[in-house]
Amino acid sequence: MKVVAVLLALVAVSVADICNDVAGGRAQATQIKELASTGIDSLMGDCYPNGDAFSALLNSDACSALFYQGTCYGLKTAAKYADVDVVSYDMLRRGVSDVQSLGNVACANVEACYNDVFDAVSDCAAADDAFLEGVIDRATAMYKARAEQRIAEYGEQNDNTIAGRLINLAMKRFTDVDSLRAFVGERVGDDVIEDAMEGYQAAKDAAASFCDSGCVDQTAKFLKRLFSSMNKGRCVDATMFCGACQRNADVFLGRRANSIPCCLQDVVEQAIAGAQYVADTYGDQAANAESYLREAFADQPELIAQAEEAAAAARAQFDCVASVYQENKSSCA
After folding, report:
1. Residues 197, 325: one domain?
2. Among 41, 79, 104, 230, which residue has the fewest nearby CB atoms (within 10 Å)?
3. What sign does the dihedral 306-312-316-321 (CA atoms) show?
């Protein structure tokens, strides 16, 4: 894994620095980093890994690469789509290289950065039994000082929208940290935690396999060709897969030379299995949550209808994607 990670790091550096594609990209990212560092240090209190401020971890080679490339990718993408009403598959094709570059950077650096941060937090928690409680208290204070009033005002002014109503429901139900703890404690037992840990480990293993097999580059090459082939005829809106876009994708994938990379298919299959497990295991809890929300929105049936329409539309698009995928899966060993 580590040898592959080094090779991927060299590839990522040699291919592209996304910050070079953004006017003042690195300077903008540095300003964001400074703001983030101030917040992180306030949140972590007296936790000083290696005798330095906690935010100094962002200066390690691994964390710095992730931060700058991720931030510049966000800046570039935000500017690219700022005035776009309809996203085409050609636009997505032209954005694949940036995702590829970011993916290679992530493959080369996520593990090292995560380990540094995890070790620092673990050391601080071991040295101070009240450390994690202090982090929660400081996070609560920061939220109340900087965001609570603005969020409350938005919810009050937009109670006739789905987002506004959800905000109001949350703020009424969770009035303090203790009410949130009680809610979580009632619903998150040892079985849920165990499932979450197993899911995390499975995702970690899948990501390692994806990176080690060079699947970032294989997937990027595949998606560029797929999106290029789909961007024709009446397929003009990437948010509407059913119909023309579905037919174009089906034609492309129907050719043997255009088969889905097995390393990508493995990840998709694991995601499908995971989603099915969640649906089977936690279906009752999801139904209870839906029942609660329907009751909370009972005085605004138009919002319920809006949510149902959006959900139905999303399911229809998902079904079209699933149909094409299931009919064109590769024969992988």
Report:
1. yes
2. 79
3. positive
Verify that 209 and 300 share a domain, yes or no.
Answer: yes
**In which region does residue 267 sit, left (phi positive, over 0), alpha (psi from -120 to 50) or beta (all else)?**
alpha
Q: 112 lies in which domain range?
A: 1-128
- Cα–Cα dist 41/231, whole Å: 47
- 3-state helix/strand/coil string of 241-272: CCCHHHHHHHHHHCCHHHCCCHHHHHHHHHHH
- The 8 Å CB, 24+ separation contacts for 312-316 are 316/242
Task: Give the model confidence (pLDDT) of 209-234 as tens digits.
Answer: 999 999 999 999 999 999 999 999 99
pLDDT class of 12 with cuts at 50, 70, 90: very low
Instruction: Look at the chain and report how many structural domains it folds into.
Output: 2
pLDDT, tens digit (0-9, with 9 covering 90-100), for 153-191? 999 999 999 999 999 999 999 988 889 888 888 888 889
Last residue of a domain, one of 128, 152, 171: 128
Does residue 144 form part of some domain? no
Radius of gyration of the chain (CA): 23
> Which candidate, 153, 184, 186, places its Cα nearest to that of 168?
153
- Amino acid identity at 111: E
112 and 32 belong to one structural domain:
yes
The residue-averaged pLDDT of 42-52 equals 91
Start-to-end CA span in the chain (Å): 22
Mean pLDDT on 186-203: 90
